[in-house]
Amino acid sequence: MNSVISAATIEARNSGWDVVGIMDGFEHLIAGRIEEARPLSITDVSRIHVQGGSIIRTSRANPTVRDEGAPDPDWRLHACLESLRKLGIGALVTIGGDDTAFSASRLAGAAGGGLRVAHVPKTIDNDLPLPGGIPTFGFETARSEGTGLVSNLMTDAITTRRWYLVVAMGRSAGHLALGIGKAAGATLTVIAEEFPRGEPIRLSRLADVLRPQCSSGSRTAARSAWRCSPRASACGCLRTSSPRPCRRPSGTSTATSGWPSSS
After folding, report:
1. Which among 59, 79, 87, 243 is most buried, taking Cβ atoms within 10 Å?
2. Confidence (pLDDT) at 114
3. Residue 158 has what pLDDT?
């Protein structure tokens, strides 16, 4: 995020624009706390691209959430627009995933042409409709870090003769889980997309998928399970390092293709 903040600020300043960093996402804009916005100069951001995180922080506040019991159900959206108007903001750069992109789009629409919005797709879920082969910012970093963590667990599994369950984020998209599973050499990767749509993934169903691996007789395997729920990303198990391979039930696929919905 800091890299985006730095690049956007430097380009805008060099183009003659004033730049304001809004702290904590939409949270203070919704509450009308415009004093939580701070001017950003090139000096403020020139070296932050090497720092993780965000110098203006983040939040989960969403201006598109409706309050059906209020006189104005869209008061959050309108309050956010009013705060931007008071700050004199005519162009807004947002950074985030699907929720942030949708919020930015709604703000631009509600402003009726008075606000220009540019959204930067930053999410480890990789679930935004970008051109083929272009991942979202953050996905490759998360996949790489996750692969390293899972690979270390495989060593622990060999040493302790235990199975391990690992949870990966992703909401309803299995891109991150599948990416980690492929890179780490997972024996089994189960993602939510391979289950019927609109049906909850029961714990018993997940147990049926994982049980054949656990009963294979090999205890020197690491298992990686990504969360499985109606909004889950995926589930999986890591490749066994035992000379004896894990026994797979008939009809299952290879480690890189995940677990078929028919299993």
Report:
1. 79
2. 93
3. 82
Least Cα distance to 209 among 245, 241, 248 occurs for: 248
Contact, 233 vs 258, CB < 8 A?
Answer: no
With 0.85 as the threshold, say if the pTM is over it. no
Pair 208, 163 in one domain: yes
Three-class HEC string of 155-188: HHHHHHCCCCCCCCCCCCCCHHHHHHHHHHCEEE
Kindly state the DSSP code that residue 38 receives in the 8-state scheme. E
12-22 pLDDT, tens digit each: 999 999 999 99
State the residue range of the domain holding 201: 140-238
Task: Say if 253 falls within a structural domain.
Answer: no
In a domain, 131, yes or no: no
Residue 30, Cβ density class (10 Å: 0-12 exposed, 13-18 middle, ≥19 buried): buried
Number of domains in the chain: 2
The answer to whether the beta carbons of residues 83 and 35 sit under 8 Å apart is no
Among all residues, which ones are annotated catalytic? Answer: 125
